Records
---
Amino acid sequence: MESPDRSAANKRLYREVNARIRAVAEMDVAGEPLEFLCECGNPACTTTLELPLAVFDELTGAPGRIILSSEHRPSIEESAIIAQHNGYLIVSDHA
């Protein structure tokens, strides 16, 4: 089983990658959804999630929220599902 510290580091890395995807999109995409990484923290997860930019911007504006594939279920640390959408969840991450 993966340590909580490693999982938290993975989540930070996935958020950084997603932020870079967002920055590139600003130069390139006109309102179309983009593929972002699932922020579950599992290093074996390769799931991408299609989100409108406005949803990603709202997510990153609220501290402690992450996006997960709807196939994943939050762990105890990530107990509060804020919203469910087609293909992804917005979760309050307390890890």
Note: The chain has a mean pLDDT of 82.
---
Amino acid sequence: MTSSNRIIIKETLSENLALRDLASSFFDKIEKNQAKQVVIDFKGIKSISRSFAQEYLSRKAKSKKSISEANIPENVEKMFEIINEQETRTPIIDLKSVKVICI
């Protein structure tokens, strides 16, 4: 990574963001970066998996750095929205009140 606050994720990782571990190692590098503000540029990203997006947003929320995104393709934006909506939904079944029986 350069000393710049802007990271082009396609050049650092791939144009297809697929693995949770890849997102995790990417954030490990961001945390080692000396900059307090970081812009992740998504220009040229073709696809993103649910697991990558989930790990990305989780690590971003836990980071002490100010992290923002630029040039987010529509498909990536939609995946981020899906992950964020999932966190705010009320579960249909309260699993703590369900009793498991063997048949």
Note: The first helix runs from residue 9 to 12.
